[in-house]
Amino acid sequence: MKKTLLLLCAAGCMAACANRSSREAEMDKFVNRLMSQMTLEEKIGQLHLPTVGFDVTGPRMSGAVEQKIKDGQIGGVFNIYTPAAVRKLQEMAVTQTRLHIPLLFGYDVIHGHRTIYPIPLGLSATWDTELIQRIAAAVADEATADGLHWTFSPMVDIARDPRWGRVSEGAGEDPYLGAEIAKACVRGYEQGDLSKQNTLLSCIKHFALYGAAEAGRDYNTTDMSRLRMYNEYLPPYKAAVEAGASSIMTSFNEIDGVPATGNRWLLTDLLRRQWGFKGFVVTDYTAIAEMENHGVGDRARVAELAANAGADMDMVSEYFIDELPALVKAGRVKETTINDACRRILEAKYKLGLFDDPYRGITEERAAAQIMNAGKLALSKEAAVKSFVLLKNDRQTLPLDASKKIAFIGPLVKDQRNLIGNWSAAGDWQQAVSLWSALENKFAKNQSAKNAFLYAKGCNLIDDDALRDKLNRNGGEITPDSRSPQQLLAEAVQTARRADVVVAVLGEPFGMSGEAASRTDICLPAQQLALLKALKETGKPVVLALMNGRPLTLTWEHDHLDAILETWYAGTRAGDALADVLFGDANPSGKITMTFPRHVGQIPIYYNHKNTGRPFNDNEKYTSKYLDASNDPLYPFGHGLSYTQFTYSAVQLSDSTLTDGGSITASVTLTNSGSRAGEEVVQLYIRDKVGSITRPVKELKGFQKAALQPGESREITFMLTTEDLKFYNANLHWTAEPGEFWVFVGGDSATENKATFTLK
Ligand code: NOJ
Fold it and tell me: How far apart are CA 549 and CA 516, in angstroms?
């Protein structure tokens, strides 16, 4: 039976491979023929990607786009969507150009297109790669119905510095989890078959090390050893390449003193030669031009550097179309380099089916049926619920009892604008459900509960005029209340006094995270903290529901408040999800994917650090520590509570030795020892006790999500093979070294529940 199945599978695989290679042969033939008709200028035109229309991330440099399209000087455009707009430009490209080559339409579809899902950092807190893949597929479905072909996502930059505003766009600090999420996104967007009209080209970004910007300041320099790169920062990019990502975006930072966009080691030796990447490389926004500021050459030189490094497509700067013709003539860039780049872009268009149907089946009817339909809105709520992380919950303050008098206080209770977060480019915040309107819907039939809900704004989101102005200049839309801060505070305190419990809904305005939104301090804005202190003084239990785009320092909040729920910016259905979780109709199960520090001075702080020669010891002066704070974080990576409790048995190993090529299992019995159904993310970490190079104190190597009824127990088993123990050694060889390993299984990265085995 098994044998027949195997034979059938083998036959199936061979047929699929044969199909693929015949498709590739057809593509080669088509692209060869097309390129044989193209002039050098037309080939260079394919490498040009201007932005069309308004864009908040930078100036518009592309000038007379229309004429350039007609002249075959543009390969694709971004920042435009809707069937009508896309059709108009595409028609121009395919009817009014010499060779009728269709355009690529790209866009920053980062956590949803029109239907907005939680920000990527929130999505990563679900640890649910199946859900993330489903979301990516739904996003592709919606975005393609709106005319798009290509998303500038996923951002897979490892980030250990929460001052960096763009941590909100990634999956946090861990290379293993980051790699799993990167793969899920690529699979969801591309479905392994771009000829399907509802798939999007994915774009891994920002290659590479963008998350390591010094001091957490966006666009800043990075500098790191190859060992750290290979072991800690590169795995998610590599995993996404292996999952078949079709494009990759260069980063703004330098690597080894050479800007990533002009770094041949990065874009050719590593990406193409070592990893076998077959897609195309697009630069980040004006990144070629910015190499002049980096100080590596003039216009012609930086264009030459980028082309020779392996950048295929120039986003916005126009240096390729302006400089490459002369550079080729002067022999500084080979024509074959241009051919290779052009071919890769044409191949992407071919795979998308654009040469058969340049409109990819877009119609107003399809858009109406797919955009923000019921299924997508339901998925947005599901994702929001699963992304919430219960950071603290003393005396079961949560969930709330609807028969009590509850005061909802804070500038985010009725807010819609902030719920969809940053990089929700085509999202419409007016469609977002605020907490207050969700409560009204939820309790529409329960008049007595509704009447018991009190509200006060409490404070402005921001009282710092200079900061508010800065945020408003970039679309912040923050309007200070006409009442004075004192009046707002007094009203909130009076409201809290009338209640049995207070829910404060506070956080960062959305513009305080994302691109170009680094902070030196990552606490709640001052007037919000003052409000919390005043609410605490009423003596009522205080729950803090947070909306923000990065780990915050919540030390005072943790020490004084009764419960803290992290909800990130949870998207279109944020309010509905929050209402369900606050009242216990859904049980939080998210776990943080970035360490929450106690103090900004602990940054960079991450769980998989090295032991050092003088590990922390509070009783010994000459150990690695601070005088004024402990080393440990406020909340460790992987932390997250539930309304129920989970208990873990000791770790059982199937064997105490693992031989090369073999496997062992590590198991625990997980018990839901509380009184509600709940989900737990069971995490497996290893520690390589002795290595030829120093090894981290813990490394995530597996996780599973288990849903358990009250009283239910389940055995959770992980398999470990030599592959899980490998790392890049001093010679950058991927290897596992014999010796003793610890394996930990628990509910967060601080777990000490461990067993020992030896690799022979
Ligand atoms: C700059 C950002 O760094 C990148 O992530 C984004 O995709 C591009 N702008 C295009 O908007």
Answer: 13
